Amino acid sequence: MIPSHRLALANLWVAVSAFTIASAMALMQALSRADLDLPFRTPKMYYLSVTAHGVLMAIVFTTFFIMALGYFFTERAFHRSIEQRTVGWISFGVATLGTLMASGAILLGKASVLYTFYPPLKAHPLFYIGATLLIVGSWGWSWVLIRTYLVWKRENPESRTPLAVHGMLATIIVWLLATVGVAAEALLLLIPWSLGFTEKIDPILARMLFWWFGHPLVYFWLIPAYVIWYTITPKVAGGKLFSDPLARLVFVMFIVLSTPVGFHHQLMDPGVDATWKLFHVFNTQLIIFPSMLTAFTIIASFEVAGRLKGARGWFDWLEKLPWGDPAFSSVALAMMIFAIGGWGGAINAAYGMNAMVHNTAWVQGHFHLTVGTATALTFMGFSYRLMPALTGRDLELGLLAIIQPYLWFMGMLLFSISNHLTGLQGMPRRIYQFQYGGSEIAQQWLPGTGISAVGGLFLFGSALCFAAVMLGTGLAGTKRPQKEIDFAEPIEPPGHKAMILDNMKVWTAIAIVLVIAAYALPIIQHLQLERFGARGLSPF
Amino acid sequence: MHVDLYERIWMWGATAIIVVFLISIGVTTFSQAFVPPSHIETIDPDEVRSHSEFGEPGVTIHADGSATVVVQAIMYAFLPREIHVPRGQPVTFRIATPDLIHGFQIAQTNGNAMVVPGYVTQFTTVFEEAGEYLIVCNEYCGIGHHNMFGTLIVEENPSAITGAER
Ligand SMILES: [Cu+2]
Ligand SMILES: [Cu+2]
Question: What is the rounded CA–CA span in Å between residue B87 and residue B153?
């Protein structure tokens, strides 16, 4: 085994474990929201499991999977092993330790603060310290990949950065810019306060710092999925990448636009000026562009694949695509779902419409389409290639792998559409039950929550298939040399056109300027208010 | 950089859609003063319960027919538990909390705002339809979050409103 494959594999295993535990939590919640009588169903268990599901899925599963992907793509694209592998292992250790600390605090019921951990809800210090260590570990990963890139660049000054590495660098830059916010929140506000060094905390300042991180986090999830769509899926489909420079343009736009948008999560907050909200909302609408571009390029790449296989008509190229290969179907289905989710996102970011849906069930309906499918389903589909490549074992239980993306797709449609609708009917997100003193309005939500629970069953079935294939392959697959994972060729090689798109320094500099423009003044203005702060409470 | 013709058309289409979005947000903001609730006023959470305004939550009807509703959001209730407001008149909500972050959402309307300790939430809206509405807390506030609700009654006849001219 290539030594650093072991590092990628270690990260992948943590991701798969987190995913599996979090799926079990999700099933319980979906049934609970439909008001079914379950053993162990108590408010305490419900809010604990919402926290565990959010943290393990949105932070742990994604981050560890992306770290595995980063190592794998970098080595594969550069045909060399990473620099400073020891730093990579130490980072893995730190991130895993942090994960164990934070999830321990959650599972012991000491940190049911949900994955947004808004103060003055106060968790056990281990939760905040653990989460911080996870992020510190991811910084180590970032460093290893940047270092490897710089060494390669020095040795190959004339070469084009491979597209997969270009995309992973964009991911890393977005992540580094984003985590400044949450690191400041944790180190300056949350950790001293949870340890008792400070008595009060300013919840609005904390929310500003959290969403500085929280929205670009969305792109930290999405860009690696796009890297798979651009560099792997066209090849899996049997075709070529339609346009290489436009893919680079997309990654660069994400670097620039991902961060100065966080206030769109605080549209309904007091104490944040409406002008700044407007500025962030405008920036948010601009990020629709790279995703529109991606939709075209990828679908065009699929059409190229179908035509290469002899399709002539308007739509018969669709039939020629490998729908039985989960590495393909996962992405094709994820894209269909993302088309719905993307428009929902544009609605959320327009404050007139946001007022109807803010903090309702609509919101969980929305982000299960985006991170819960566009990202998660893409990652699962690619795992069926990645796990065999990293372990040198055959894929086991292939039939389960084939049906898994379709189960997910079905489940997510049921779950998500019903949650969008109950959200419009006024149902809040994250509630244990909805008696509300026998309110007639609340009764209207019952059918929707029932459909959503059925969706949850499909999703859990799909998650079990995934976990079974991963375990079966990783532990019991027949050991023999595996086919290499190849990157898709572009129809037209990029040559030396638009070299500026490879210049990460320029784009990072522009992004930093925009982050300062979006946050420096609002935070300075905010600090000049007479702020009282709030005492912590732990009612869970 | 060579870009395929169809892709070029698509890019212009995407740009046009985004421009339409930006214009519609911009126009409603500047011509109709349509902004999200962004009131900036701070208050000490420790003093909310004894505060001259928030310590006595209730409804006031003004001479011009409009109303001001003062609400205390606490774990786990909105005070007053039942709020009566006039139909077709501007109603200004002023909300504060002594404890955690809550959400104040009048279900199936666009009355929706966060309530954050240390800050006063204020927004104004008009109810065009008389009847009973459900107010729910939509921001997780601990183990009793799902029990936090209130009732809003929009009255056809303003004189029916208890606590008027208080
Ligand atoms: Cu966002
Ligand atoms: Cu509440």
Answer: 9
Helix (H) or strand (E) holding A303, with range, is: helix A288-308
Considering only alpha carbons, which residue of chain B is nearest residue A439? B134
How close is the nearest chain A Cα to the Cα of B61, in Å? 24
Question: Residues B129-155: pLDDT tens digits?
Answer: 999 999 999 999 999 999 999 999 999
Query: For tokens 């504060």, what's the residue?
Result: B96
pLDDT category at B161 given cuts 50, 70, 90 is confident
Assigned domain for A305 exists: no
pTM: 0.94
Q: Annotated catalytic, A368?
A: yes
Which value does ipTM take for this structure?
Answer: 0.91
Helix/strand/coil for A522:
helix
Q: How far, in Å, CA of A28 to CA of A25, rounded?
A: 5
Nearest CB to A274; choose among B10, B35, B101: B35
The DSSP call for residue A198 is -
User: Which amino acid would we find at residue A467?
Assistant: A
Name the token pair of A95. Answer: 């991130």
Q: How far is CA A99 from CA A134, A138, A145, A176, B153, in A?
A: 6, 12, 22, 19, 48
B121 touches chain A (CB under 8 A): yes
SS3 B32: coil
3-state secondary structure (DSSP) of residue B106: strand
Contact B158, B89 (CB under 8 A): yes
Determine contact, residues A291/B136, Cβ cutoff 8 Å: no
Before A125, cis peptide (omega within 30)? no
Domain that holds residue A408: 360-495
pLDDT of B9-18, one tens digit each? 888 888 888 8
Cβ atoms A328, A233 nearer than 8 A? yes
DSSP secondary structure code for residue B161 in this structure: -
Instruction: Calculate helix-pair angle for A125-155, A62-78, nearest 10 degrees.
Output: 10
Residue contact A439–B146, C-beta within 8 A = no
How many structural domains is chain A composed of?
1
- Which tokens belong to A27? 């099933």
CB atoms within 10 A of CB B123: 22
The rounded percent of chain A whose pLDDT value lies above 90 is 67
Residues B93 and B22 in one domain: no
Q: Is A465 domain-assigned?
A: yes
Q: How far is CA B25 from CA A86, A276, A353, B22, B111, in A?
A: 51, 14, 10, 5, 19
Question: Letter for the amino acid at A514?
Answer: L
Distance from CA of A241 to the nearest CA of B (A): 13
In a domain, A75, yes or no: no
